[in-house]
Write a structure and sequence with these properties.
Helices cover 77% and strands 0% of the residues. With 206 residues, the chain is mostly helical.
Length: 206
């Protein structure tokens, strides 16, 4: 019971942190599509991972009664998401040391600054609504980077909790099976005793 409550809590934490990540990254993806540019891998990988992670978290939370019966599979998928988020964070690692106040001018995060196109080095040159202040782009990517690290931890926690749920559910099933078998034996022995006593009574009256 306690492991199930913790599992639901951390599922909510995953959903709460993945929704803003999806919002910020979808803004980047939409901007690159509008400007007919290829979306950088560090944006696209984290975006796809966040979409799949959010769908998985919501589905397993709403169908928790089914999750208990397939907790070992849920644990395995959560572990895969841990690896996916680690890869996404590694792809975005250059933004970690970037100074958003001097983004692109101090040499830190230079690769991201150039690859961002209209969101970075070419900000304002396309004349679209997505050609905004590149400092805002830096701050949003930093936030996505931090939320990606948080989800690495969150999915690792739910993966372990799913194993505990599987263990507890298995113990409950074993106990119920043992009780049913024991009760069946008692009813069978009681029935045999009643039949023996009735036979004895019939023999006595005859």
């Amino acid at each position: 019971m306690l492991s199930g409550l913790f599992f639901a809590f951390w599922r909510w934490m995953e959903i709460i942190t993945l929704i803003p990540t999806l919002g910020m990254l979808s803004w980047f993806v939409n901007g690159f599509v509008k400007n007919n540019q290829l979306t950088p891998n560090y944006v696209l990988v984290l975006f796809i991972t966040s979409v799949l992670g959010a769908v998985w978290a919501i589905a397993t939370l709403l169908a928790y009664h089914r999750t208990k019966h397939s907790a070992i599979f849920v644990s395995f998928v959560d572990f895969l998401f841990v690896g996916a988020f680690i890869g996404s964070v590694v792809a975005l690692r250059d933004i970690a040391n970037a100074d958003c106040a001097r983004f692109g001018s101090d040499g830190r995060g230079q690769n991201i600054y150039i690859s961002l196109g209209s969101f970075g080095s070419f900000s304002g040159s396309f004349g679209s609504v997505f050609s905004v202040n590149f400092r805002k782009s830096c701050a949003m990517l930093k936030a996505c980077f931090a939320l990606g690290i948080m989800n690495c931890v969150f999915f690792a926690i739910t993966s372990v909790l799913a194993l505990f749920i599987h263990r507890k559910h298995r113990e409950v099933v074993v106990k119920e099976t043992h009780v049913r078998r024991h009760g069946h034996r008692r009813s069978g022995s009681g029935g045999s005793r009643n039949s023996r006593s009735s036979q004895r009574r019939r023999q006595y009256y005859v």
